[in-house]
Each structure stands twice: as structure tokens, then as C-alpha cells.
Amino acid sequence: MTIGKPISQHYVYPDTQILKNKYNLMDAAQLEEKCAQNIAEATIALRKESFPERFDSSYIKHIHKCMFEKTFEWAGHTRDKPFIFMDGSSAYMPEMSLSENVHYADGKEFRKLFREFDNTLAEKNNLRGLSRTEFIRHAAPLFASLNYIHPFRDGNEHVQRLFFERLSQFAGHELNFSLVTRERMIDACSGAMERNNLTLVRHMFEDISNPHKREILQNFMKHAESFQKEGFDTRNVVVALEDFPVFGVFAGVRDDIVAVSTKDMLVICETKDFDEEQQLKTLSKGDFVSFSSKQSPEILIPEKKMGFLPKNELFQMIEKHILIRESTQLIQRLSQTVYNNPNILDDKLSQINKDQSFAATLSQQIETNPRSIAELAGAKYLFVKNNTRKNAENCALALATVVREHGEIATYVCEQSVENYQQERERKGVSIDVPNARLQNVLSLSKSAKLQKEAFLLDPDLKKEFECYEKALNKRLSRKEHKAIEEKDFLELAKTVGVSIKQAQKIARIVDLTKATQRHVQELDAESSKKLITAVVKQRKRAASF
């Protein structure tokens, strides 16, 4: 029988702020230590699990249950519904607040927001197939939304981090939340809730998803303690945004990491990204400084992270493959002869497409006991069989054979599909920068073969640089995209690459310039080879005359 009303106070022991726990611990520090240990163990196990079919509220509850089931009875249960404890008391917490004026979602909007969260991820295919920048743009509002929903009485931050860590991995990216200080996380979430401002969340995601910036943060963490000893606040550390002015107090340099203390954060960057490298030599700790981190190279073609291949997508690839369709049609024709039903084995063929080993079992069953599947076609009276029954019995062995072969075909198609997906994943996972100034200068000479050849002869390193760029650019574009460039179908190119039509035109222009330049390089190589052969022949003639 429920004791009293289901109220939030029943989550804690009477006259305390200690959450009821399975260890019956009444000391907050001891409970926190035990809880942290359980979270760490569960996190390791969760990271080893296969990715879920859907990233949604059900998976969020699963994460919470795994993390806290050893600690709390209500692990995996959201705060919007009453939970009945073993002692009979009932608790729920439809209202929660970040501060006096800032509230999390209440019970009335809780389920609606969770549905919207689930639907958004489903509609956006779990954020797969996006560049890193696009992933951040879509993930940031989802992160803020889940933070606002705050589904559990406790443990939301741990669940939120791991959910987005796993989501990013599934989508082909990486979010390393270990590089986010607690103060920074609080600031980012507060900004999203109090001012509906996602700037800090996006900045945080940029820092922990960009490999270069992750490395900067990791290097800084090694020296964080030394900055603290010198009186600088390291509770909120961010990497400088490109071309964004920073004003603050110079905190020093450690292992090529520049640190500047501003009003509410410590901004860091590499010395090579500092726009005034000469200025560093004259700066002393405590000096006022203003700087902008150097802008990253302009991207011509963004990367598209396809992420892992889900089982359901692999199954669809197998089902649609021409070899599978042809094999299925043959089995259906034989099934008509043997069982008078062309679709009698359709469900079992789908099972084979998912689990190819089942083909041998089914084939053996049809061969040894075809009637175990269904009644054979035709009729038999005593010892007399009509022609339809005779044909059915005669074709049963052939049906068993093609079923076994269907399994072999499905195995081949599965392996090819995985290999093709991996190749496509690697191709799309590379971004291509706009040619640097040196390359742009030589590309601008593409109308003059003579001038381009002279430029490459004078600078062999430039020739190597161009050849590397041309190879990377050519490899990044698919046959379909190359065809769109040849046909000047910029709309199609924009769709497949994932850029604006204006950017697609720029890509096509640079591809055309590189093709023209590559022809001149090939001519130069041929001319050089011819000259080398002529020189060798002359040398041999001279040697023979002595």
C-alpha cells in the first residue's frame, strides 16, 4: 500500500537530502564514491555494447538503468511518473529547477518533448551522413533539448554525455566529453536554458569533435595545475575560435600552448595559431593582450561521416541486390512447382538474407523431408501419383540445391555490400581544402601549357604538391559527381556533395583547372622521359666509340 502522496521528498531519506539507495548509505560522500564506481563500470560495459537500432528515449532509459541499477531502485525510470519503492512509498518529481528563475521541463510538456526528441533523431537518420560542422549544428539543439527535459531525478549529466558520445560514434564522429570541465558544461547548459543561446554548446562540441582542438585541450590539461598555482582559473577552458577577437590577461605558454585569461574563461590556442607570433616574445605574465586565432584553411568539399553500417540497412542492401532478386525469383518458380505456392519460402529467404547459415538447414530439410515445409503440389491416390505430384517430387532436390546456393549468394552479397560501404565511407570521410595560394597561382596558368611547365620545372616541390592535391580531389569525388561536373549539372553536384549550388560551381571550376593542369604535367613527364632516353642513347654511343 502506498504511503502518502507520490511526492519528491520520498526520493530521499526523511529529514535528509540523501537519496534512498540500495546500500542504505546515509553519508553523502560515501554514496557519491560508490555511485561513481558503479557509473565507471557501467560506462565501460555500455561502450562495448552494440549500437542500438534507434537512438531515442528508450536508449536513454537503458543507459540510466545500467549506470544506476546497483544504486537506486528507480534506475531507468523517468521523474514524470510515480515510482513505488520497496518500502511502499511513492515518489515523482514533475518539477525541477536549475535556479530560482530557470526551470526544467515539467510533467505537462515532458512526454511531448521526449516524442519530439525521438522524432527528430529518426527523421535525421541518427545524424548520419553529415560533415562534422553539420553534425554539430544538428546535435547542439538536441543536446540542449535533452538537458532541458532532464528526464531523471538524478544522474542526467552522465547519461547525457554517454548518449551523445555513442550517437557521435555511430554517426562517424567523436565527442570527447572528458575534455569538458564541469564549469564549462554548466555554462553551456545554462546559456541554452536561460537565454535559448546555443553558442556555448556549439563551441563546446566544436572543441571536443575537432581532432586538432582536442589535441590542444589534451596538451593543456597536462599543465592545468601549473596555471592554477600561478593564480589562473582553469575551471572553464575553451579553445579560441578562428578569427574571433579575444581580450584578456596573458597567462603564459606551455609546450606551444598559449593561454589568455578572460572575464569568465581561460582561452587557449597553439603558438602557430596566434596571429601575432612576434608579440609572444615580448609578453609577460599578467600583460593585457588581444588576439585572434588564425583562420583554418577554407574547405572546398566537406567530409561526410557515414558512421557504422546498421544491420537493418545491410539487410536492405542484400534484399535489393540483383543477384538476390534473381535467386529469389528462381526459388519462387520452383516453389510453385513443388508446393503450388511461389511465396511459400519468402519468409525463410528473408531469414537467410539476415543469417546465411540458415540456408544449409533449410536446404537439408527440403531435401530429406520436403513435406515438412508444406503439402506437395498435385495429388496421390494410394500408389498412383498424377504428373503434378511427380514433378513436385522430382523438383524438390533442385529446390533444395538453389536454396543452399541462395545462402552462398547472400554471403557474397553481404561481404561485397560491407566492403563497398567501407570504401564509400572512407571516400566521403575526407574533406578537401581550397587550393592554397601557390597552387592557385599555378592553376591560373592552365591556359598556357608553356608557362605551367616552366613553373613546375623551376619548382619540383610545387609539382609534387599539385599531384598530391589532384589525386586527393579526384579520389574524393564519385563517378556520379565527376559526370555531373562534365555535364555542368551543378544542382546534382550540390545535392550529392552536400553544398550550395554556388559552391558546386566553385568545385567544378577547380576540377576543370586541375584536369587541364594534369594534362600539362603528363606532357611534361613524357617530354622529360623522351629527353632522358635521348641522353642515355647518346651516352651509350659515345661509350661505344672508345
Automatic annotation (TrEMBL):
Annotated organism of origin: Bartonella ancashensis
Keyword entries, A-Z: ATP-binding, Nucleotide-binding, Nucleotidyltransferase, Transferase
Alphabetized PROSITE patterns for the sequence: FIDO
UniProt-listed NCBIfam families: T4SS_effec_BID
Ranges for domain Fido: 55-207
Domain of life: Bacteria
InterPro entries per the UniProt record, alphabetical: Fido (IPR003812), Fido-like_dom_sf (IPR036597), NA-bd_OB-fold (IPR012340)
Keyword Transferase among UniProt keywords: yes
The protein's name: protein adenylyltransferase
Matching SUPFAM superfamilies: Fic-like
GO molecular function, one term: AMPylase activity
Entry's EC annotation: 2.7.7.108
Catalytic activities: L-threonyl-[protein] + ATP = 3-O-(5'-adenylyl)-L-threonyl-[protein] + diphosphate; L-tyrosyl-[protein] + ATP = O-(5'-adenylyl)-L-tyrosyl-[protein] + diphosphate
GO biological process: regulation of cell division
